[in-house]
Write a structure and sequence with these properties.
Length: about 325
């Protein structure tokens, strides 16, 4: 019951009055959501009734009515999502109007911008800031061939994981992330997915490896013949297991003067130590050691990365393009 829920809520927070007040806020937001649902249903009925009368007037007019009904449907999830975050009907309408204007001037759809804003908001971004950045993020999605929702999730995943380590304002950080996502697509032909990024970002953060380095590692493996999934998995496992491997085999994770990882010397020492300690046991033992560090294709992954950072340092050249 509501009374029981309120009592449990008050006990958890230590203040019955404050808890009931919060419950009132939640109830009010829920009522707003139900009101938005009812309003949407009424509007859909009007459009359906209008559609029946318009069919006989020609396919062109019918298409226009269908498009209007489609736009109305596009507004619905955003209305509910923002209403539950406490925004007024005026604020929701303002978001829709801004999205429409942005879509008119850019190669994105109204639905794409609205979906992007809703996704950013659902990830915890402040509604006003999500509204401000939704057009930019939707544009990144259009440039990389992703839907706005997918791009918003990638941007959100990166921002949540390493945004605090980046320089500049919140807007500058989001724009930097978007630029790197787009450049990754053009440079390596690779799309970033939130599922494959989460653990890699966490491990990269612990090793003081920036986003540009992380996607360069993944892109280098992709160019070496790994597909997007296997390059992501190898990168994730390498970064996750590197510290433990350095302790097991006795090599150093070498640092540059700015604190970033020295890929060449770190990978060189890793290869040397595994060769010294495991080489006498045969190729299968060496492959198993590399696999323990970087996954089923561990030896190929580490060899590809070492080759890229050696000689002309193709890795560094690719990294410079992203910076």
């Amino acid at each position: 019951t509501v009374t029981a829920e309120a009592t449990r809520f008050a006990a958890a927070n230590g203040n019955v009055g404050a808890s009931l007040q919060r419950l009132d806020v939640v109830t009010a937001r829920s009522n707003m959501a139900h009101a938005a649902i009812e309003e949407n249903l009424q509007r859909r009925q009007k459009y359906q009734q209008g559609l029946v009368g318009m069919i006989a007037m020609g396919a062109g007019i019918r298409a226009a009515v269908l498009k209007a009904a489609e736009v109305q449907e596009q507004r619905f999830p955003l209305r509910i999502g923002l209403a539950l975050r406490g925004l007024s009907e005026h604020d929701v309408s303002s978001s829709i109007d801004q999205a429409r204007e942005f879509a008119r001037r850019n190669p994105v759809s109204l639905q794409g911008v609205l979906d992007t804003q809703l996704t950013l908001t659902q990830r915890g971004m402040a509604p006003d800031f999500a509204k401000k950045m939704s057009g930019f993020v939707a544009n990144v999605g259009a440039l990389t061939g992703q839907e706005g929702t997918a791009t918003a999730n990638v941007v959100g995943e990166i921002y949540d994981a390493i945004g605090s380590r980046m320089q500049g304002s919140s807007e500058q950080r989001i724009r930097k992330i978007g630029d790197i996502i787009a450049q990754t697509k053009f440079q390596f032909g690779m799309e970033l997915a939130p599922e494959g990024l989460r653990k890699s970002l966490q491990a990269a953060s612990r090793l003081n490896i920036g986003l540009e380095e992380l996607v360069t590692v993944m892109g280098t493996l992709k160019r070496a013949g790994f597909d997007e999934n296997s390059s992501g998995q190898a990168t994730e496992q390498l970064l996750t297991k590197l510290t433990a491997a350095s302790q097991k085999y006795g090599f150093q994770i070498v640092r540059n003067t700015d604190g970033t990882m020295d890929w060449y010397h770190t990978l060189r020492d890793l290869r040397q130590e595994i060769g010294t300690q495991v080489g006498a046991q045969g190729l299968e033992a060496v492959d198993a050691a590399f696999g323990e560090i970087a996954g089923p294709k561990g030896k190929s992954a580490i060899t590809a990365l070492f080759t890229a950072v050696s000689g002309a340092n193709a890795f560094g050249a690719e990294l410079a393009k992203l910076r």
